[in-house]
Each structure stands twice: as structure tokens, then as C-alpha cells.
Design brief:
This protein is an alpha/beta fold. The chain has helices spanning 2-13, 18-25, 45-54, 56-67, 86-92, 125-136, 155-169, 180-192, 196-205, 222-237, 258-264, 277-290, 297-306, 311-328, 334-341, 353-364, 368-371, 378-394, 399-405, 410-426, 428-444, and strands at 29-34, 37-42, 72-77, 144-149, 175-179, 209-213, 241-246, 271-272. It has a five-stranded parallel sheet with strand order 5-6-7-4-8, with helices on both faces.
Length: 445
């Protein structure tokens, strides 16, 4: 009868989504049979209720077809084995062998953060190429890399991909993957426990590749900055590989001493920008394949359109959709996707070009018709540049779509964005205006 049950499970597997099968059917086990009854055990009462509500009819039909006769299926919660007496646990405890424990190399690299799993597109191709070049040592001129992006864009993925590549190629090399906070805490503990010499030896002479995340967290930590700058000198002189990551340019990180700042800028500084719509679809499709899920095209497009802040938000949406589908035993469709994203998606979707025009024009006391006119007067051109810049930054519209809305060519839109970006670095008044208008727009949605 147990063989019949396995045959029935195989038949059910072809009729339900793979994730639903793994969650609800696979854990079921044959226990006993007698007369016209078959007893199947479930891991817990929640599983029993879910299977009874959603899969009982499938199980009945599959068992009947496999056995050639009708059986009454009885679902039971599996018996829990009592915990063994404490003395038996103690008797089984073995002494660990006296082996050499390698020095700590920081945090573990995430298994799936490899170059093969990184989706390359126009927003990150330079960063990807620079990281891969450093990992494979194709260019001896650059041993340092500073990955720059907003949170959740893939800095950690690329950083750890370098570590994975080096360890796969040279398993004996020491790859230290840590955050700036880890480095600070380790140094403080070394001072407190009279271990500063070992700390210095570790980072100056026993490290082949240093991956240091979130370097901006060192702001204001003077003693840590001094020690890190000295360690970097040793590593650079020995031509070791160094990867930094941050949300800020070295020049924009406050309270960083000049010695450390100069070392942070000694290598390439590629920028990872937010992915566009098509790239977000590719990322979702790749992530879904990694976890064995298949999502309808319309759901992929919906998630890519709604979750546009960063890659981490995309992953959160994908996990939410697949988990809800599995737990509730429902197919992945648009209604399910909407239910998941309504608590994740930012209000950005409500920010429109018309809203931006209205708020900018009201701030500068001009008419909306003025901002889309051919006028090149400064009192009109400056608000127009700012409105175009805000539209580019706060919506997902293409340059062509923005140009059409402002009665401009897309090349003119590109120049307007560049003009404002340059002005933000030099003009304090412009920076205050843009910040005020950004807050004003976000407050309206």
C-alpha cells in the first residue's frame, strides 16, 4: 500500500504547482491501512487543515486511480516523539578533535551572490566589468574598487561575487568580508583585550582581499579611520585587492580624515544606478528561476512597474507573492500580486508629470503654459529645468516621454537634467529649492 501512496503522490505532483506540492503534499506520509481506510500523517494540525480544505479531493482521486479501488483517506497529525532523557544526550556528546581553527575572516559570503547570478544591464555594466576585472586580475593597474549606489542596488552582490570568484580560483587565499561597523567593533575589542597587535597583523599581513561594506559608517570614528588607513597602506603596497562600498562618494562622507579619504579614491568608483523597467523584469525572472517559481508575464510586468525603488524591494515583492501563493494554495495571479504589493510599493506611482509641473509653477509664480512654452527667459527656463529634473528623478518616464510632455526633444531633457545636477554641487540655493520641492511633491501623494 505504501507503493500505491507514492504512486498517488507522483500523480498529484503533476496536477499542482511545484511550490504547493513541496509545501503541502510532499511532507505527507503513509502510516497504515485496513479494510477500506488509508491513514496518512501530516506534520502538524495547520498542515492537516490546509490539505483537507484544498487537496482532499485530489488525494482521494489519485489513491483510487493508483489502487484501482476506492479507499477512505484519513488524515492524522503525526505523533511527536518524546525528547530523550538528558543523561542520554550527555552520553552521546562527543569531544571535538583538537584541530586548527583558521582565523576569522568576517561575515560569510552569501551562496547565491555570484557573477553568474548578477543581472547585467546599462545601469550596472561598468560596475560589473570593473568587479569582474578585479576578481580575475585582468588589469594590474587597479587593485582597489569603490562601489557606489543607493541602498538595495546590488553593491553587496557584486562585492561578494568578487570574493566567491577569488576563493573558487585560489582556495588558499584569505578573503575578509566585513562591514565598517564590524571593523570598528573588532578594533575596540582588540584594545580592550590587549589584542591590538594580533588585530594589526591580521589586516596588514594575513589578508589577500579585503571587502569592506558601508564605509560611510566610519564617519566621526577618528581612531578607527587612522588604523584602517594604515592597514590599507600595507595592503596597497603588497598589491592586495580591496573593495569598498557606500551610498556616498568619498568626498561626500562627513568627518573622514584626509588620509583615509585619499585611499578611498585611489581606485575606480563605478556607480550602480536604479534598474529600468526591462531590467527589473529580467531580475524578477532570474530570481524566480533560482527558487523554482514560474510567474505569469502580466504578474512580472505588474511587479516591475509597481516596485521600482531598488532590487531589494523587487525581491521582497517576489518572495511575498510566491509565499502567499504557497501558504494559501492559490495560483499566482494579478489579484494576489496586488494584495502583496499594496503594502510594499511606495507612493511614487501617484507622482505624475502634471503634479510636478503644478507644484513647481506655483512655487515660482508662473503658469503651466509658460513652462511648456518656447520661452528661454531665465525666469521660465530655471523652473523648467528643475521640473524636468524632478520628473526624471521621481517618475519612471523615459526621456522621450518627458520631452513630449514639456514640448522638448529628449536631448534637451538630458541637458536640463545635467544642468540641474551640476548646479546642485555648486549652488546652495538651488539645492534648497530642489529639496523643498521634492518634499512638497512627496507630501501631496
Amino acid at each position: 500500500m505504501e507503493q500505491i501512496w507514492e504512486k498517488a503522490k507522483a500523480a498529484i505532483k503533476t496536477q499542482v504547482p511545484s511550490h504547493s506540492y513541496r509545501m503541502w503534499i510532499e511532507p505527507l506520509a503513509f502510516k497504515d491501512n485496513g479494510n477500506d481506510q488509508v491513514v496518512i500523517t501530516c506534520p502538524n494540525s495547520f498542515s492537516k487543515k490546509r490539505v483537507t480544505d484544498h487537496y482532499q479531493h485530489l488525494i482521494d482521486a489519485a489513491v483510487q486511480e493508483a489502487a484501482g479501488q476506492s479507499f477512505r483517506i484519513c488524515l492524522q497529525v503525526a505523533d511527536r516523539r518524546p525528547a530523550p532523557p538528558q543523561e542520554l544526550i550527555n552520553d552521546r556528546q562527543l569531544t571535538l578533535p583538537n584541530i586548527h581553527v583558521p582565523p576569522a575572516t568576517g561575515r560569510k559570503l552569501r551562496r547565491n551572490f555570484t557573477f553568474d547570478n548578477f543581472v547585467v544591464a546599462g545601469n550596472n555594466d561598468f560596475a560589473y566589468s570593473a568587479a569582474l576585472s578585479l576578481a580575475t586580475q585582468q588589469s594590474m593597474q587597479q587593485n582597489a574598487l569603490f562601489l557606489l549606489s543607493e541602498t538595495g542596488m546590488g553593491k553587496s552582490h557584486l562585492s561578494q561575487a568578487v570574493g566567491h570568484h577569488i576563493l573558487n580560483k585560489c582556495p588558499n587565499e584569505s578573503v575578509y568580508y566585513i562591514t565598517a561597523e564590524d571593523f570598528t567593533n573588532e578594533m575596540v575589542n582588540a584594545f580592550r583585550n590587549d589584542g591590538i597587535d594580533k588585530f594589526k597583523e591580521k589586516y596588514r599581513n594575513r589578508c589577500d582581499t579585503l571587502i569592506l561594506e558601508d564605509i560611510h559608517f566610519l564617519t566621526g570614528k577618528d581612531r578607527t579611520q587612522i588604523e584602517l588607513a594604515l592597514a590599507l597602506d600595507y595592503l596597497m603596497d603588497a598589491e592586495k585587492k580591496i573593495i569598498f562600498s557606500s551610498c556616498y562618494l568619498p568626498s561626500d562622507i562627513p568627518k573622514i580624515n584626509d588620509q583615509l579619504r585619499s585611499r578611498l579614491t585611489c581606485g575606480l568608483i563605478p556607480v550602480i544606478k536604479p534598474p529600468d523597467f526591462q531590467t527589473r523584469i529580467k531580475i524578477l525572472r532570474r530570481k524566480a528561476q533560482e527558487h523554482g517559481h514560474t510567474l505569469p508575464g502580466e504578474v512580472l510586468e505588474f511587479l516591475a512597474g509597481e516596485l521600482c525603488e531598488n532590487v531589494r524591494q523587487l525581491e521582497s515583492g517576489l518572495i511575498g507573492v510566491t509565499a502567499k501563493s504557497s501558504l494559501l494554495g492559490k495560483a499566482i495571479d494579478m489579484d494576489l500580486a496586488r494584495g502583496v504589493t499594496q503594502n510594499i510599493a511606495r507612493a511614487r506611482k501617484a507622482i505624475t508629470i502634471d503634479l510636478i509641473k503644478e507644484i513647481v509653477c506655483k512655487h515660482f509664480s508662473i503658469a503651466v503654459s509658460d513652462i511648456v512654452s518656447k520661452s528661454r527667459k531665465q525666469v521660465i527656463a530655471r523652473p523648467r529645468h528643475i521640473a524636468i529634473y524632478l520628473t526624471r528623478k521621481m517618475t519612471d518616464h523615459t526621456l522621450q516621454a518627458i520631452g513630449k510632455s514639456f514640448n522638448r526633444y529628449h536631448a534637451t531633457v538630458y541637458r536640463s537634467v545635467g544642468t540641474v545636477e551640476k548646479g546642485l554641487k555648486e549652488d546652495v540655493a538651488l539645492k534648497k529649492q530642489v529639496r523643498f520641492l521634492t518634499e512638497k511633491i512627496e507630501a501631496e501623494v
